[in-house]
Structure of GRAM domain containing 4:
Amino acid sequence: MLKRLDKIRFRGQRTDVFLDLGDSPNTSDTECSEEILMKPRPSLEMKDTEELQDPAGPGTLTMPAAAIQDYQRAETDRLNDLKGHLEIALLEKHFLQEELRKLREETNIDTLKQELEKERSKRLDLEQKLNLEKETMYSWLQAWLYNRFGAYIGDFRFQPEENTVEPEEPLSAKRLTENMRRLKRGAKPVINFKRNLFALSSWQSVYTSAFAFIIYMNAAWHGWAIPMFIFLAILRLSLNYLISRGWRIQWSIVPGVSEPVEPPKEDLTVSEKFQLVLDVAQKAQNLFGKMADVLEKIKNLFMWVHPELTQKLYVGLWVALICSCLIPYKLMGFMIGLYAGIKFFIIDFMFRSCPKLRDKYDTPHIIWTSLPTDPQLKGATLSRRIHPTVAHGSLGTALPCGISLEEQTGRAYNTKKGAFHEVFNLSGDERPLAVCENGWRCCLINRDRKSPTDYIRNGVLFVTENYLCFESSSCRSNSSKKNKVIKLIDITDIQKYKVLSVLPGSGMGISIATPSTQKPLVFGAMIHRDEAFDAIFTQYMKKVTMTTATNPET
């Protein structure tokens, strides 16, 4: 029975009293089909009445009529409620569709898209501006750092070293002379400072040296030696400042010697220019020679060329190292300061006053004077190759003054034609002096002879303790007829000589007069003329002095 009741789809009034759903706007097909289903069928009441009848026989009802009416009434109420809900839903849908239509009409999608694009473009512009500001800030900071520290950072950049070749100036007599004068002016302050120190150490001014000695020893005793030297440097700079401002301050321990200033000559003859170049070249040669000697001695000292001298330096350095490790620096500075003052003011003064004492006990002086130079080492090596063994008995006498036995045995005393004493028929103890071991190349001009072969002869000139020897380089004969030997005590006159007066300069010859020649002998074309003249004249005066002391009548 209940299953049958569930099949009842609609109960209530007729379809004409319902709202015509077809008149409602915007109804869909689904809604229309639902309306069709909801229309009551005409024979519904009759069928229901029949179904409610008892199946045993028609015309008999199993339920009373009041219950059936109540049931129909309840179904009608139920259907009315459903109808009301449906109408409300349809009205809401209708209103929503109207609102959606109005919204679509009021709102334009293209406008929204355009506004969205505008907002996107604004956002991109803002991002670009922000990035530009960041870049501007970064570039400004970078530029500020570069301007502030770029110059210092650029100094640390690694760059390949450029080998620049300075252009060499052509040789000019005027330029050479000017450079020598500049060198002399530049070295003048150093020379004056050295002279003042020498004057203090030599006690030339007793009061000044005593005052300086007391002040220095007092400063060294109290540990003020270094501040005193710094104060003296500041004082010297202050005086130089006043001098640069026009003050006339001249103070020196050594009295100043005014040197004549030669005015520069504008117009020089060819001879004067040549002589000027020769003088400057000679000064440059002597200066470079002294500098080379100093550098070579220092090199040989550290390279163990003379082991005995280098050994003293080696032991001294070890002693200094041990003392520096054991003795406190304050005490060591005090000891060094006191020793320096005593050495400078007292010991050096005694050594200068007593040369023999200096030669025996002044260790730095002995080491320095005993150090050989490279030319001396070459000469010693050459002599050892020529004379590997030399008898000590033949070198016992007649050693030149100031030359040790080891240095004397290391020299070469052979000429191109044989032993020196055999070539000139002299005794075995006659040997060239140290300054002319290899001799001076020159030409002998004998103006007493008329033959061209005898008038001029090329050769080498030597000087010994007693003789002046000229070895001819002629190879026609091995005899000693063309060699010339002159006793120093037989020389009556010795002078510098200029062979050709047309040539510029003071000449390159030496004139020697003897009683056996009518005209003086001339040794010309001698490159080291001044050196040879000084050596010959010094030895000549030495022999004359000795002969006069031995034989006053002679």
In short: Strands lie at 414-415, 418-419, 440-445, 456-463, 467-472, 484-487, 493-497, 509-513, 521-524. The first helix runs from residue 2 to 6.
